[in-house]
Amino acid sequence: MTAQQPAEPSGKVALVTGASRGIGYGIAQALVARGDRVCITGRGEEALKEAVERLGADRVVHIAGKAHDEAHQAAAVERAMESFGRIDYLINNAGTNPVFGPMADLDLNVARKVFETNVVSALGFAQQTWKAWQKDHGGAIVNIASIAGLSASPFVGAYGMSKAAMINLTQQLAHEFAPIVRVNGIAPGVVKTKFAQALYEGREAEASAAYPLGRLGVPSDIGGAAAFLTSDQSNWITGQTLVIDGGIFLNAGVG
Q1: In whole angstroms, how far apart are CA 252 and each of 68, 73, 95, 255?
Q2: HSE of 89 in the Cβ direction (CA atoms, 13 Å)?
Q3: Which among 246, 223, 255 is positioned nearest to 23, based on CA atoms?
Q4: Using CA of residue 27, residue 238, residue 68, residue 199, what is the dihedral sign?
Q5: CA-based nearest residue to 91, from 38, 153, 51, 162
Q6: What is the pLDDT of residues 194-240, one digit of tens each?
Q7: Given CA atoms 26, 143, 150, 237 in this order, what sign does their dihedral have?
Q8: 114 within 8 A of 98, measured Cβ to Cβ
Q9: Helices 22-33 and 219-229: angle between axes, nearest 10 degrees
Q10: What is the pLDDT of residues 58-106, one digit of tens each?
């Protein structure tokens, strides 16, 4: 089933990494719904093809590859430019979290992999997009961080460290790319995706009860925020990370 055709094309183009499913797909869906054209990336060719079919092949193209691969970063930017002639918005969503356990036992090679995928790749995509379009024409970047980057995150420490770095990367790029490109971040709580499934599967009611708003997030919650941060309504916002967590941080001082 394909998405409904947007009534008024926006003329804008976005590159969304890690967008075959989950949060990335939710963001691509929100941007397509308002009329943007979108290039999506991910590791799996078939999953990307299915996502394009659902989103609308007249508005969306894809390219498969590993986010930390510099050749893939360059190819993704080239694909968007060849298909649509511009890249107004970059959404850095690709990420990994392959390890669960204490920091004392963390394999340093795994830590390097997490940083390569979650942080260094985001910088690479930002550099490529900047050179290809944004330095001369402007635009916006949104980096998907996590509330795990805002405080201690037991047993997912490498992921938390990488997301803390993503928040700082957001500030660094916002300062350097101003005034022509705005750079902001989003720090979600637990969102119902395959990526986060281990955090709630089989106990969703219990997990949801910890959230003041009474539920876990869904991809459209993050999609709506990304659409806002790439809109004219956010033209005086840069260097910020928007926490979208169902209120879970309100419990930080309780107990």
Answers
A1: 34, 38, 26, 8
A2: 29
A3: 223
A4: negative
A5: 38
A6: 766 566 565 667 778 889 999 998 999 999 999 999 999 999 999 99
A7: negative
A8: yes
A9: 50
A10: 999 999 999 999 999 999 999 999 999 999 999 999 999 988 999 999 9
Using left for φ > 0, alpha for ψ between -120 and 50, and beta otherwise, residue 18 falls in left
Of 2, 4, 65, which is closest to residue 39 (Cα–Cα)? 65
Catalytic (active-site) positions: 159
**Structure tokens that stand for 56 in this block:** 């609308």
Compute φ and ψ for 217, nearest 5 degrees: -75, 165
User: Do the Cβ atoms of 61 and 85 come closer than 8 Å?
Assistant: no
DSSP string for 201-229? TT-HHHHHHTSTTSS-B-HHHHHHHHHHH
How many whole angstroms separate alpha carbon 203 and alpha carbon 243?
24
> Is there a contact between 246 and 216 (Cβ–Cβ < 8 Å)?
yes
Peptide bond into 188 cis (omega under 30): no
* pTM (global) more than 0.70: yes
